[in-house]
Amino acid sequence: MRGSHSDLEHYPAQLACYAATMESCAFNSLLKSVPAVPSLAMRRAVVERGLMGLEAPAQAVAIEELAVRAKEGNASARTTVVALTSWLVRRRSAGADSALDAIEEASRRAGLFYACNLGGDASSAKSLAPLGRLPEVGLNRDGYFPKHLPPEFGARSGCGGDQRVFRWFAQQGLTWLGSELKPLPHFLLHPSGPFIARVLRTQWIRRADVIRVAARRPTTPEIVQAVAMSDRWFCEPRVRSALAENPFTASWLSGWLRLALPAS
């Protein structure tokens, strides 16, 4: 029975009729199941289980219906779209994805608006690509890769352990924030996506700091990905809003983030 669905992508009229069926099965299943589980990771798993068992045309219809309902303000649909967007980011971060490409192709054939924009072309600024890496704002490598011990470390008593830790981090080409563990402005301007991802996993970083990282202009795809792949912070509407409003965020990701934002 599933094999017969693959022919629908060549026939937009049949696909439109099939949408009515999908609205009452895969779409409604996602709409009920995703908000019922507590964590974003579990919601992603529900999304993947609900979509990957379908053919590409059926997947396209379910995704399109979710987007339309979220656009209309349906709270369950918006919750599901957050999980869907997180799932898309993780799939695209692994490289080329033939399954998502097939969904986009089926969506284009059927004339669907949202489901044809799943990150197949994830370049946020193609006109800037030939120019190479975008310049960073306020970049000061000596600030977060210091080679000398700050004078205040020698002035404090009882900080021998601090000095040893600082020297070890400096030898490794890393930065230690000190025993106070407070994020510094230059620390949030680090150009490395994996480095930012580690910062976002720490317990001491504040939501305001994460918003600053998400709103950096210009930024890089790696840094956007680091924020979007942090389950702890991607659940925060203000963080998603900062990513959505950033002109350097990939257009496909910005579009899905806007669908999931609560009404202002």
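the 2nd protein, sequnce then structure:
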Amino acid sequence: MFSLVMFWIPSNIIWDIFNKIEIQKSKIEVVSIPVEKFTKSRQSNKIYFKFNNHSESIKVSSKRINQFIGKNPNNYIVEIGIKKGIWNYYVVDYLNIKLKN
């Protein structure tokens, strides 16, 4: 256990440093993705969608999710500003929820 912790902590710090450097060099890419569902619970409020054929979710505040609870998620898209890091690791710069046109 000790060796795992001793390896994991430094490697995680190094990963974060290199990823932050790569993200600073990358430009913001804006993607518009259909919303799959909105959820609200005491633990977390989330918006679900598919990105690169993988189910993803983003935590949002109660204030933000309240305006969408009870509405049809198929009528909405989530517009996300992302920056690509290393190994297809993305960081969300901003998030907007919009009605589909």
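The two ends are 53 Å apart (CA to CA). The helical segments are 2-25, 62-66.
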